[in-house]
Amino acid sequence: METTGKLIKPEAMIFDMDGTLFQTETLLLPAYHKMFDILREEGHHEGDTPDEQLMLGSLGMLLEDIWKRVIPHGTSEAHRRADELLLQLELEGLENEEAVLYPGVVETLSELKERGVRLFVASNGLEDYVKGIAMARDLAPLFEGLYSAGEHATTSKVDLVALLLKNHGIQRAWMIGDRSSDVEAGKENGQTVIGCQYAGFGSDSELSGSDAIITTFPELISLYDSSAES
């Protein structure tokens, strides 16, 4: 755990989903390979399945931008079909017990809620995906709000977090995530950023600008307990 200065206790914590709460690759990679098998069968894709590291390295982006990177020569119809298939296959995959949260997520969130912290999710994913994970892994009751770009039609996480803060009257929050989009969303909205350095999807500079870095999720408890009241 690293900090760059004194942290102030937040009234709320806003969490990214993929690579922060949820071990995305445990659900995504089986669905990803099945998706391309179907895309080939339907005539939407030719050739090999793009390297899965390309997909993992795109996590945190909007789906529209992910497909431009992963299937750059695909048609708009192929991209829309990829949207549909990936969501369908991932929701089906949630029935598989191998699709898991990071260690200590439920316990840590429960402790934070007991301490009076308001908990939220802000994700660039689709609404059914974000809410599906929260429901399937018993996270939903812990959160006051589950915000997704898919539900609110935001074009950046900055806008999504701004909407969340406004809707819930939050003045002081910690934005917690593993990608540069999370750092940007926190900082552009004047909030503290806690970078999560355990997913391994991004580059070494991905979390530059964070106020603190954690290497396991439960470190949030000690970080919160050691922060100042004001």
TrEMBL record:
For biological process, the GO terms are: DNA repair
Record keyword Iron present = no
Q: Which InterPro entries match?
A: HAD-like_hydrolase_sf, HAD-like_sf, HAD_sf, PGP-like_dom2
**An MF annotation (GO) of this entry:** phosphoglycolate phosphatase activity
Source organism, top-level taxon: Bacteria
Q: Which UniProt keywords apply?
A: Hydrolase
GO cellular component terms, alphabetically, are: cytosol
Cited PANTHER family: PHOSPHOGLYCOLATE PHOSPHATASE (PTHR43434:SF1)
The protein's name: HAD hydrolase-like protein
